[in-house]
Input
Amino acid sequence: MLARSGRRTSLIRAIGRAGSSLRAVRTAMLCAAPLLLAAAPSPPTPRLARDTILQHRYGNDADWYRDRIPLFDSSDETLNAVYYYRWQVFRAHQRDLGAKGYISTEFLNDVGWQREPYASLNDATAFHIAEGRWLRDRRFADDYLRFLYLDGGNDRHFSEAIADAAWGRYLVDHDSQAALALLPAMRHVYGLWDDRFDFTKGLYWIEPLLDATEYTVSSIDASGGKDGFRGGDAFRPSINSYQYANALAISRFAALAGDRATAADYAARVERLRGRVLDALWSDRQDHFIDRYKVDDQYVHYWDQIRARELVGYLPWTFGLIGAEPKYDGAWKHILAADQLGGPAGLRTTEPSYQYYMRQYRYDAATGSRECQWNGPIWPFQTTQVLTGLANRLHAGPDGAIGRGDYLRLLRQYAGMHYQGGKLDLEEDYDPATGKPIVGLPRSHHYFHSGFDDLVISGLAGIEPQADDSVVIDPLLPVNDRSRDRLRWFAVQDVPYHGRLLSLFYDADGRHYRGRAGLSVYLDGALVASRAELGKLVVPVPAAPNPVIVRPSAQSISLVRSDYPRPTASSGTDPERLHQGIDGRVWFMPELPNGWESTGATRDEWFAVDFGKPVTLTRAELSFFAGGAFAAPDSYALEYQADGQWRPLPTQRGAPRANATAAVTFQPVRTTAVRLVIRKAPGAQVRLAEIKLF
Output
């Protein structure tokens, strides 16, 4: 065992010396490890059955995912199911803005506090980018970052860590040109946060509501326990960790651009802010990072510490401000304690010992349902942040107050939260005693205010992207785990990384994947590293050009209802429903209806788009929802307007698949309007989730 381990170490070092080409890596393997590879024929390269998996998970909509998402497999079916569900959530929250490209939304339907007319919010953006960076189709993350920085989408509606997310995305794709185009805007936005910087204390402060966490300890106590929706300005671990990470990202991007002065300036800011967080926001008494009050009133006093621990205290680990320093490691005990932050069903945002723990202050006026609060409920938002921080802590050093087995347990607990009565549907917040949703309003279904797939890829599987031509593989599973519910195997396949495809297989005994026992890493299908047991591997990854991002722009998208393009229909003429047919949003979740719905009694219906000017079109995408009273049409035809008449686009007839997007191509046509003529299935109506015309 030791001899073979030593040969593997020599193999890895030899690969590291091999240079920058994939051929050199393969040559190093053959030369450095003859006893490892020559003793017996090499096992075949394992491959997950892509089409079978995607058909099982997504049915008719499998095509959207086929060349986009990395595959995942493990001995835990709940982790598997939630992993694929979260990509479905990602797909549902992609809103096409037409010429501005794609963004990720937080809510599927509209809410009153979103940024109009885009339906964007910036508080969960870092999660959206962290998930989207792992797609082989780089357009979604790229468009979103361009919107945020080049189109003013980062309006500081809430506190944010978007520059840090851009750096995390760069580590995966190494597209320096795209990243550096955003650098001036990153610096500008960072400077705007001076309006929340106390120069005497050297720290940022924020109102909890604008930290996307209303009804926290600071805001409730600042009201004397009477409210907490507004107020409670405080120096918080959240905004200071965000700004630390954003400054570090800007410093690194500036260095990449060769701007040494800016790199040094922001590096100095990083060190100053880190020092102030460690000096001022760490509480020896509470053994935790805490808020200090900015506000001073009859109930609380400036610079005093808040009186209870909150989950937000783990954010210095989430954003790399600290790693495995022993002084702070005891804080992790609080999420393991059932009477502290470790609730039976999930991580509490505040401890039960707090006087106003789980007291309900706010209700929805229309329904009387409970509204959002952060005084104890489980929030997937902060659960994601804490698990990211825990992954960073465990990757930085050996187990201490908390270990790798805890990461797997907490990830599994979080995965279980995605289920409602056996059905996958992540909502806003949950009761930590029961695991049941609290808010439960229509807007809450399939809520994209958190991450999960990044926790699987970079945390559980341990794919740590690097700034150089390498990748660190360090799965967060305990070595020599013999527990009954251990993860006996897992795989991630076709992960885009530095222009290549990275795959990782772990099989405890080699039986499941019928190949190598232990951990194996493949680059573009070739084995580049392995070891017989779990542990860290540093693998060279010679960079390759990324595929060019293709950006077709749908000319049918309508963001403002009163502007062109404008929809009309033969029935179902409610303005909101009509607009949903061309608003750039496509999803097939039945809990939240989306799209134009026919209401006519006859089988033949139509939906038309008036562009208000001549446009040239060559392609269409049609997305039909099926379920309940709705079915995909029996057939359809596309027509275009010419000389005041509707004329057929030839050969465009067929039976589209339900709950999927179908592409239709045709010879270029110049027109001012297009009409979709539908023959409905007997006894059913049609819901057109979206028609896009290119």
